[in-house]
Input
Amino acid sequence: MDEVVKVGMADLKAIAGSGILTTLGLGSCVGIALYDRTTKVAGLAHIMLPSSKHIRNNHNKAKFADTAVGQLLEIMMDMKARKEYITAKIAGGAQMFSFKEKASELLNIGERNVLATIETLKQHNIPVIAQDTGGNYGRTIELNANNGLLLVKTIGHGIKTL
Amino acid sequence: MHFSFDELSGLHLDVLKEIGTIGAGNAATSLSKLLVKRIDMNVPEVKISEFNMIESILGSGDTLVAGVYLQFEGEIKGNVLFILDTKSAKNLASLLLGTKQDNESKDEFYAGFSELEASALEEIGNILISSYLNAISSFTGLSIKPSVPYFACDMLGAILSVPLIQYGQTSDKVLFVETDFEIGHDKMKSHFIVMPDIKSFSIILKSLGVI
Output
C-alpha cells in the first residue's frame, strides 16, 4: 500500500520515488501537481488566491498561485528533481455557488486562480500537460509519485485520470 | 484599528461565544416554529484554526454535505454556512414541503436535490441565518444586512473554500463560531458556522464595551 500524504488548504508538499500526494475537496482553489518522471519527484500545492501582490499578509507562499509554484519547485529541486523535466497538471477552480447578485469580488475567483496558475507556470517554463478545471463541483485529487498520474474524483461528475 | 487573532483574550472569546448563544437561540426558536418540531442545540464553540487544519475540525474535506451559504454586510461583515449531511438535508426539505421522508437509504446516499428541495433548503437556511443575525444586530446595535442564500451539495472542503478564500486575503487563520442543531426526534444533525471578517471583531467587541 502506498503511503498517502495529505496536503491541506494553502499548503504544499513534495515526495519522491513512491507514495501518493492528495488534497481533499478542492472547490474554487486550484491543485497544482508537478512531476519529474526522470527522478520521480512529485509535488502538490493547494492554492487559494491568484496573487500575493496587494495583500498585506502574504508570508504563507503556499496560499497564492504566483508564489506557491516557485516554492514548490525549490523544494522539489532540493530533492534532486530536474527542472527541465518537470511537467504540471492542474485541477480545481470551480465556482461552487452561482451568485445571482451584484458582481461579488468572489465572482470567478476559481477562474482567476486557474489563469494565474497557468501564467505562473509559463513564467517558470513548466508545461501544463493536463487540466481539469472549472464547473460548479468539488474535486479530490491524488498524485501518484510512482508514475505521475493524477486521479481526479468528483461526486456525481465521474472519476478521471490525467 | 488592526486586530489579529493572537490579541483575542479569553474574555473576548467568551463574549463571542455569548453572542453566538444569543444568535443560535433565536435561530432555533424560528426554525422550531416553522417546522413545528423540537430543536436542540449545543453551546456554541469558538474555534480558531489554520486553513490547512480546518477540515480536520469540521470533518474530512471530501465528505459529501449539503450547505446553504450567505454573506452579510453592514456595520459588520462575514460569511455564514449551514451544513447538513445529505440525508438530514433530504428529510428537512421533505418536512417543509410535506413530502414523504426517506428513512430507507444510508447516510452516504446521493441522488442529488430537486430544484424544489434546493429552494426549500435555501429558505430554511435563510430563516435560520436571518434570525441568528437579527438577534446579534439587536444585541449589539449594529446593522447587519444578509445576502440571498445559495444552496450547494458537494464535498465539504469545496464548499468551505468559498468563505475561506475571502479570509485568505487578510489572514492565515480563520475564527468561527460553531453551533450544532438537532432537529426533531429524527436526529437530523447540522452545523451552523459563522465567520465574521477580521475587522468585524473589534467592531463587535467595541459595541459591547469590551475593548
Summary: The longest strand of chain A covers residues 20-26. The domain at 4-161 of chain A is CATH 3.30.1330.200 (60s Ribosomal Protein L30; Chain: A;). Strands of chain A lie at 4-6, 11-16, 20-26, 30-36, 41-47, 86-92, 128-133, 139-144, 150-153, 159-161. Chain A touches chain B at residues 7-11, 23-29, 48-49, 55-57, 59-60, 63, 94, 96-101, 104, 106, 109, 136-140, 153, 155-156 (CB under 8 Å).
